[in-house]
Fold this protein.
Amino acid sequence: MAGSLTGPQARWEGDQAKAAGYIRYSTIDQDHERETGVDAQLESIKEHCRQQGHELDRVYKDVKSGRNVDRAEFYELLDCVADYDVLVTREISRFGRDKDGVSQAYLIQKARAAGVIVETTDGKAFDLEDRFDRAFFKMLGIIADLEVGSLEERVREGKREGAKAGYWVSGTPPTGYETEGPQGQKVLVPNENAAYIRQMFERYVQGESMRDLAAWFRYAEADLPSSQPSIGNLIRNPAYKGKITWKGEINEGQHDGIVSEALWEAAQDIREGRRRTYQCWDKGLDDDGENGSG
């Protein structure tokens, strides 16, 4: 009999639940390939979903071989756990890993906060109405709280290293780009709006104001930002000259710039010049910093 972390009524309420499976394979499993190998874990997850009537949407797999650890799938599952109704694994310990600052505690806590049910195929049932199981998961919650800080620090460090290597790590890509590649190694790729971005820089350097460009974007047949502040943000974004920024650090990107570095720099010179002029007008000074009233 499969086990589950029981609690509130399942949110799919009788409809077919969308399930994600998780497999972790380590060197220990190599000695028990038939019982706990990748194929055995996968088959047990598939069979569980068939018995429970779940739709198995995806199976996340992490493989540990010797000293090399690939934990990318676990962290991707952490990011999108709320997209599922059920998480299925062979046993709860599969979510954990020796010498890892993040174990099953944090994943289970995050899943339950999103209303996601965690189920196992090893026959061990967990009932949060039982005081011993409830105490066990309270203990896991305490461990998870301790792990959160460590996880967040590693996530920040991972993003910093990714940005240093030239990958996009900041969420939604800039207008004119989309991303390709696996988690942690996403590369910016120009899309159908890249031509608008290129023309924006060209028109700005030729003398058009941000207000003019905002109006142009507003009536363009494309999904483009159309406020003056957003135009300003686009113009000063180094991604458009092939750079990646993270927390003030600027690194050479893995992607091609939409505009040349010379055009991008010319736009910055014009933007800074206009900003200084506006500041002078606001203070009643001329461009040399003298009072313009005579």
